[in-house]
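ESCALATION

Customer reports they have been waiting on this structure for their group meeting. Please prioritize. Original submission:
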Amino acid sequence: MDNLVPKRGVRMKNDYQDRSVAVLGFGRSGRAATDFLLQKGAKVTVYTESEPDPAQASKAAANGAAFRVGRFPEVFLQELLVRSPILRPDLPPIVASLRRGAVLTSETELFFAHSKARIIGVTGSDGKTTTSNLIALLLRGAGHSVYLGGNNGTPLLPVAERMRSTDFAVVELSSFQLMTLRKSPLIGVITNITPNHLNWHRDMGEYITAKRKIAGDGMRFLAYNSDCPTTAQAIRQLSVPTVAFAVRGENMMLTEGGKTDTVLAPKRFSLPGRHNLENLAAAYAAARPFVTLDDMDRAVADFHGVPHRLQYVDTVGGVRFYNSSIDTTPTRTAAALAALGGRPIVIAGGRGKGVSFAPLAEVMASRASAVCLYGEAAEEMAAAMGAHVVTHRFQAFEAAFYAAAKMANRGETVLLSPACTAFDQFRDFEHRGRVFCDLVRQLKKETMPS
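Update from on-call: job pushed to the front of the queue and completed.
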C-alpha cells in the first residue's frame, strides 16, 4: 500500500488554481473538499456512484463543480484525486491514475496541509469520539481555543485556514483516513486496537498498519493503552516518544520515560464503566502538557457523554431505555453491557463487519436476559449465540424494538447495542440511534393515559 501514497514533500499548498481535481465521493468530507478546492480556483469534477444530495450538488455545481454519477471510469484523467475515506486507495481506477502521474490525497490530508493549529489526532477501535470530546473539554477548561472534528462527522477543512498556531485541533481519525496519511499530528492517541472493519481491510494486519500510521516524524508523543496487548505490540517498533495509560481501580496510571504517575479519577466524572475511565485516561495523557489536574476536575463535572453512547433516553412504564447505537463491534457491545450492569434486554444486529460474534455470545449469556436480533446479521448472530442465549429474530429494526419493549417488565432495561453497522437499514449509526429515540418517544405517547 505504501507505493500508492505520494512521497512526503508533494506540494499541496496554494497551487490549486486551474488544476484539474477529481473528488471521489460526495459525502461530508467530499463536499468539504469540493467547496475548499473551488474557492482555491481548482477545476473540480465530482465522481459519485450514487445520486448526490440534490441541494448540495446544485450548490457545488453553481460554484463550478462538474458531476459524474455512476460507475467510476477505468482511469481518472485529473492530476489530483481526493479520496473519500470509504474508498480503498487501491481501487483499480485510483491505481491506474497514480501510475499515470496523478497525486492522491483526502480531505483529512488537505486539512493537515493547511492548518497551523497544534493537531491532536485520536484513533483506535473504540472510544475515539468520547476521547476526542474529552480532550477538547480539558483543553477548553484550561482556557485554550479548540476545534473538534474529523471522523465524528465534522470536517475541519472548511475552517483550517482560520486556525492560529496557538489553537488546538482535536481530530478523530479512522483507519480509512489513516491509510494514506503522510503528515503526523503533534500528539497522537491510540485508544485500543481490536478486530474491526475486516469487511473493508484485507486482514487484521492491514488494519493495525493503518492505525500505526498516526505516528511519524515531528510527533511530540503518542499516548497508547498499555492494557491492550494488540496496541502495546503495535507501537513497539515506532520511533516516537510514548506515554502509556492504564486504569487500576479508580486510578489512572500514566507512564513516560520509565516513570509512572498515579492520578485519582475525578469524583465528579459521571460516565459509567471502566472503558470510559480509560477514555478519560487517554484524554488526560494527551492534554497533560497543557492542563492541570484542577482543570480536569472542573471540566468533567458537567460532561454527560456523547449521544448514541450508552445514552439514557427515557423510562416508559417503568422500563429504562438506553441508546448505544455507536456500538458497531462485539467489543463495544461487551463494554456497554459491563458498564450498564444488570441483565438488560438487548437489541442487536444490522450489517456485520466481518468480525466473529462468538466472543460476544459468552458475554450475552451472562449479562443479557434476552437478545432481539434484526437485519442482515441476525441469522449469523443467532448461530453464534447458540442455545446459551435467548434470542428472537426479526427482519425490521422497528419490529425488534417493539418486541424488546413488550417483553421488558417494570424495573428492567432495554439496551440498543447492535454490535454491527447500521448500513443495511439506516444511513449511519446516528440515524439508527435517532430512530430508536423516536420509537421510545412514540411508545411513551402510546402508553400515556388519554
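Sent to customer with the following note: DSSP finds 15 helices and 19 strands in the chain.
Escalation resolved.
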